[in-house]
Amino acid sequence: MSGLKHRPPADAASATPAEGLQLPRGSKVAAVLLRLLDHSWVSLVAAFAISAPIGLVLIASTGADPWFATLVTIDATVGTVNGIVNTLVYAAPRLFVALGAIVALRTGLFNLGGEGQLQMGALGAIIGGYYAASILPGWLGIPAALVGAVLFGGLWAGIAALFKLWRGADEMIVTLLLNFIATYFVLFLIQGPLRAVNSSFNQSERVPQTSELPALFGTRLHAGVILAIIVTVLVAVFLSRTRLGLELRSVGLNAAASRFQGLPIAALTVGALVVSGGIAGLAGANEVLGTQFRLIQGFSPGYGFEGLAIAFLAGLRPFRAAVLALVFGGIYSAATLLQQYAGVPVSIAYVVEGIPIVLLATFSGLQLLRAKRRKG
Amino acid sequence: MTGPTDPTDTPPRLRLRGMRRSFGPVVAVRDVDLDVAPGSVHALLGENGAGKSTLMNVVYGLHRRDEGSIEVDGTPVDVVRPADAIAAGLAMVHQHHMLVPSLTVAETVSLATPGRRVRWDRGAAAGRVAELAGSLGLDIDPDDRIEELTLAGRQRVEILTAVHRDAKLLILDEPTAVLAPSEVEPFFELLRRMAAAGRSIVLITHRLREVFAVCDAISVMRRGALVFSAPTARTTTAEVLGHLVPAAAPDGVTDAATGAVKPHPDAAARRPGAAGGPGSAGGIVLEVQGLRAPSAPGSTGLDDCSFSVGGGEILGIAGVEGNGQGELVRVLAGMAASPGGRITVDGEQLTGRPPRDRIAVVPEDRHHDGLVLDLTVEENLVLDHLGDYTRLGLLQAGAMKKDATAAVDEYGIVTASTSSPVRSMSGGNQQKIVLARALSGRPRVLVVAQATRGLDPGAAGAVLDRIRAARDRGTAVVFIGSDLDEVLSVSDRVAVLFGGRIVGEAPASTGRAAVTAWMVGSEPEQSPEKRPEEDPA
Amino acid sequence: MDAILGVFFWSSVIGLAAPLLLASLGETLAQRAGLFTIGIEGLMLGGAFAAVAGAIVSGNALVGLAAGAFVGLGLGAVYAAMVVLARADQVVVGIGFNLIVLGLTSLFRRTLFPGGMTAPDTSLLAPVPIPGLSAVPWLGEVLFDQSPVVYLVYLLVPVTAWVLWRSRWGLAVRASGDGAVAASAQGVPVLRVRMQAMLVNGALAGAAGGILVLVQSGGVFVDDITNGRGYLVLALVMFARWLPVRVMIGAVVFGAADALQYVGQTIVGDGFPPALFLMAPFVLALVVWLAVSTKSKGPRDLGLPLLG
């Protein structure tokens, strides 16, 4: 019935060589994705409500007492000051990655490379916060580190944009591959060139105190958490209130129409990935300057995919992502405490985080099918 | 309509009772009863949107039916998906072909034919296809890839596929739309041969002339209902026409059922001063010379396409789809290059994307090219000139809202709010947004492609009024349409696009016969006033 | 230089390529049917875990390998139910699926096998030289002194090609990925075909995980042992343009990059950092992408659900 369904092939066939650039996958997938992920809060809560008892069963299977586990979970999240602090601290890096992913996904670009971008961001933070800081006045330490992180993360993601524009390579695959390259590259550096003198671990030198993100209230809490909140607001404003943000969303929702209206698709593709990677890079800076104070092997327990999971669950909305990052931070905080007190492996967190995603995606797929059948 | 009490021994090949299908609040097919006899060619007539294709899509299982029963040769069949229809012996050749592009002809034919063996014998399949094609008199190479075939070629493959699996009933949706004039006669012979061999054929069409040439029975649909059904021998063109186009369709107003605009006897006469020639009102504004675009499957591309349009004039571009319309729009929109071609507006040659105060384009497919459905009304209205609403990178929400509200008022766009997504709006309101955006730049030239496709009659009328109003303000309008009646009624002058070039031009008021002839690639006959399609046989 | 040309190096290349190749053949079928399996990392990881668990419980490495394939099949069935039947977004589900499998395998390793996971006896999968052929200098020694399952994996290359281009099912698979709606209109049971392709993919990926851990890693399962090989498979299938023979060539090239870490020490000496060797296959994948043609666009409906 609709023009969409019976589009004559002549239209599709008349592309010119000048349009050699492949449209972002979004031309088909991301517009659907946004609507697919448009769940209500109710279904989000429901998904976690299904996931939580499964988690408890798994905890019980390890021999731990589920009731004790519940109490520990409360302590580790909202029950104690320490719990709240840990939840916030664990939420911050995941939120940075999620926000970065949101910018790319909203443009219809599947940036699955948050892990690599945060690794490079951490490297940039060390270069800015340790090496550059040594020749800069002290107060420039933190800005230099942050700039380094954004630059390294952004340029790293930009590689995927170049592959896409030059070779038509799928950004999904390229960013996945770049994850491993970045991780091993950072490992190579802290095993060799950047390794701290006289250290028994694979780690860099400690950043000077002037480059550390200030601690808050005398706890583990640090300014990275506040930075994460600021960046959340900035991303939300960027997407909804700026010209560039509108252009990115437009490309993500309908690349063909965007091109027809004259939007520069290639430039926007590069821009979206670079901004996305830059934000993810801040996750690395957050870890280096706020919690580890060094670049240290294995500092990311998989923030990349967790951040991506948050972005999906949040339906690509920045403020929802902030809330869900808190939930993920709480889960991780509880899992670490459970490992300490009850010997439950921390990896249980992945299961509890993964189940809601799978549930909601399935759920949304069925809804999409039903809507399609109704409307024809 | 057809009496359920046909006292013949053999049951009908296809018997439909109470077929009904709604899309949301729209009833697309309304309680249709239809019988198709074995070994017959049965025409299903109706204007665009009358529900012919939907009815047959439901029969074929592409849409689920809400109510109704389907019998094939007296056996009830429950069609839920195409596989059920195929198992019952039905086959459907779609208007926009349903073939897998990367497969070869032989693969395509085998794919559609159930088989028990694990192995697929490429050589044997190709041999069978070649043999069958020969026996049907079809020119098909089994090793050709579908994506390399023309639309007519793809149609032949679909028919071959149906015959290969020995379908008892073939449903053909507007099959002649993709055929060159010289291909039509052999095609009808093929249909007659297949009918003589005992197959039944349902021919969906809106061309009355074809019907009397080839069909044994005729049914007419209007507004989703079957309003007439009779053997060809027992009816006349006039009678069928009477059901097809009810009398007293008000002049220049869209038909309530279909949204198609009825031809006004002399459209140009309504506007004093409009004669049949470029520049008659305001001098030549748009001049197009030697546009070229490569041909592609399903389209001829452009081949030395030239024309000019005056200010305050609507030039209609008529033509069968696939003769370069899509490419013409893309070239004029600056979306595709035309090596060697030249586009000038007010004497100034344009390269690349034209400034929006020179040429504005309303693309054919508003969902694909015109709108970003999930953005808001405000955002869509300014998508092509965001710079005007940006300060220091920030969007000026106030200005956007103010201008959007003004446009909504001016164009009569019905929406809950200017910040609602356009996805939730009706097609007519969506099209008004595209038009409002195009005209907001006060372009010298407005290019409109398939302006009223899929719109309800009221909306179609409103959109056409807007286009006329732009013309009256001195804009040069290029009106590209596939509905000849609409093109004739809106335009001042009509040019015919055939094989990627303009093959003829005529005043809209008197040129119908000539235009009709040019559209199928032949030369007009002597008397230009003759209207073959409406002549009683 | 000797090490690079040596029989040992190339023999390990052929072996290391096998799990990648096996999973890639399954993924080729799945992508040809329109399914983009980000979750293949999880399918391989689940298979690897099950293979070692099966080998420990039964004491028989072949039973372990079968368990890997079987668990892969089961995970594939779950995955297919979500993306094919429920039309869940393939990327979103894949990300969640991989997290869950990573969490579960790591959890079960600690709770079910607190003493660590090492297959007791993998001799059934040890190399079996093929008499005569393996005596051919260099080439025979490289190719024909492998584990029996490695031979089988390479035999699957022509089998996959045959299935795709010479069987009715393969025809339906290609149609389902390149024009799902059209294929459906021609009577092809697209959903069923996609389910089947996903089950095959699951079983092959599971077995690939099993081979990875039982044949290449001495039967020791550690957390996240696949370590991105699933994503390598995705890259491999894409720039091999969904052609089994090119997939095989690609797998061998990646196998060579993988094997470098074993001979690297002997080439460069102790100073050479292992991290760069670990990085090699991934860098190679990107470089290959710069070199290959991207003319063929691949299955048009890749990653898209069949609606309606």
From TrEMBL, chain A:
Q: Extract the InterPro entries matched here.
A: ABC_transp_permease (IPR001851)
Subcellular location as annotated: Cell membrane
The cellular component terms of Gene Ontology attached to this UniProt record, alphabetical and capped at eight, are: plasma membrane
What Gene Ontology molecular function terms does this protein carry?
A: transmembrane transporter activity
Protein topology in the membrane: Multi-pass membrane protein
So which domain of life are we looking at?
Answer: Bacteria
| UniProtKB keywords | Cell membrane, Membrane, Transmembrane, Transmembrane helix
On whether tRNA-binding is a keyword of this UniProt record, the answer is no
The membrane-spanning stretches of this chain are: 41-60, 91-109, 121-140, 146-166, 173-194, 221-239, 260-283, 295-314, 321-342, 348-369
Acetylation as a keyword of this entry, yes or no, is no
Mind telling me which PANTHER family this protein's record contains? ABC TRANSPORTER, PERMEASE PROTEIN, GUANOSINE ABC TRANSPORTER PERMEASE PROTEIN NUPP
Q: What is this protein called?
A: ABC transporter permease
Automatic annotation (TrEMBL), chain B:
Describe the location of the ABC transporter domain by residue ranges.
Answer: 14-248, 286-524
Q: Can you tell which superkingdom this protein's organism belongs to?
A: Bacteria
Q: Specify the signal sequence span.
A: none
Enumerate the residue ranges of region (Disordered): 259-279
Annotated Gene Ontology MF terms? Answer: ATP binding; ATP hydrolysis activity
Q: Which InterPro entries does this entry report, sorted A to Z?
A: AAA+_ATPase, ABC_carbohydrate_import_ATPase, ABC_transporter-like_ATP-bd, ABC_transporter-like_CS, P-loop_NTPase
Keyword terms of this UniProt record: ATP-binding, Nucleotide-binding, Repeat, Transport
Does the record's keyword annotation contain Cell inner membrane?
no
> Which Pfam families does the UniProt entry name for this protein?
ABC_tran
Phosphoprotein listed as a keyword? no
Tell me the protein's name.
ABC transporter ATP-binding protein
What species is given as this protein's source?
Herbiconiux oxytropis
From TrEMBL, chain C:
Q: Could you list the residue ranges that cross the membrane?
A: 6-26, 33-56, 62-84, 91-108, 148-165, 199-222, 242-263, 275-292
Alphabetically ordered keywords of this record: Cell membrane, Membrane, Transmembrane, Transmembrane helix
A family per Pfam: BPD_transp_2
State the source organism's domain of life.
Answer: Bacteria
- Has the keyword Transmembrane helix been applied to this entry? yes
An example GO CC term for this entry is: plasma membrane
| Subcellular location, record wording | Cell membrane
- State the InterPro entries in the record: ABC_transp_permease
Q: Could you identify this protein by its name?
A: ABC transporter permease
